[in-house]
Write a structure and sequence with these properties.
Blueprint lengths: L2 H14 L10 H18 L16 E7 L9 H11 L8 E7 L14 H20 L5 E6 L6 H6 L3 H10 L5 H13 L4 E8 L2
Parallel strand pairs: 2-3
Antiparallel strand pairs: 1-4, 2-4
Helix pairs in contact: 1-2
Length: 204
């Protein structure tokens, strides 16, 4: 009989049947069996939480998201620091492209509907606030900005697309490569009202 089999047998007698093995069980074995019982609780606990792995981005792509206060386009000192860390972490910033997607306080509506002029203006002001700060850091790469309160660009269309339309849009806009899909995955998972998502990648 293996050690594991013996410990399982002891566990059954002690904790299930409530008995002992007629004095043949040593203190050391009882302790070992208790440890085994604890481990089994963690292994077979049906209420244990299984967490999804955090998505891992390629080394060619870095991302950062910030959240504005309601009805505000002002960047806090902490948000400025996080943006500066993002744009300055590459040794050749002139070879990089910073893509920025900015939301208003309300979500992007379905196709055929529009947000109010005030909401569009708010997203535009947030975009400008980030753009001005990025330029003040000395960033020399390209800057691409998407106002997510507007419907007139490929990124907003992708948010409201079916899987078939999404594939066609990616191909047409030449964003269907691995890096382009990763960018969209970041925007899709992180983007929501009041948020701005910044993605730094090598120029395509």
């Amino acid at each position: 009989m293996s050690m594991l089999q013996r410990q399982l047998k002891i566990f059954w007698r002690l904790f299930i049947e409530g008995g002992s093995e007629e004095g043949k069980i040593s203190i050391k074995e009882i302790v070992a069996t208790g440890v085994l019982a604890v481990l089994m609780l963690f292994i077979i606990n049906p209420f244990s939480e299984a967490k999804d792995p955090v998505p891992v981005l390629s080394e060619e792509l870095k991302a950062q998201s910030i959240e504005f206060n309601k009805a505000s386009a002002v960047l806090s000192p902490a948000q400025k620091r996080s943006i500066e860390q993002l744009v300055n972490q590459h040794p050749s910033p002139d070879s990089m492209e910073l893509t920025l997607a900015v939301w208003a306080d309300q979500p992007l509506p379905p196709k055929g509907k529009e947000l109010t002029a005030d909401q569009k203006k708010l997203a535009s002001m947030r975009s400008l606030s980030i753009e001005n700060f990025v330029k003040s850091t000395g960033f020399e790469g390209d800057l691409v900005i998407f106002n997510m309160a507007e419907q007139a660009h490929w990124l907003s269309n992708m948010f409201n697309s079916t899987s078939t339309d999404l594939k066609a849009t990616l191909a047409y806009e030449k964003h269907g490569g691995k890096l382009g899909k990763e960018k969209f995955r970041v925007f899709k998972s992180e983007g929501k009202p009041r948020k701005a998502v910044l993605v730094l990648a090598k120029k395509s």
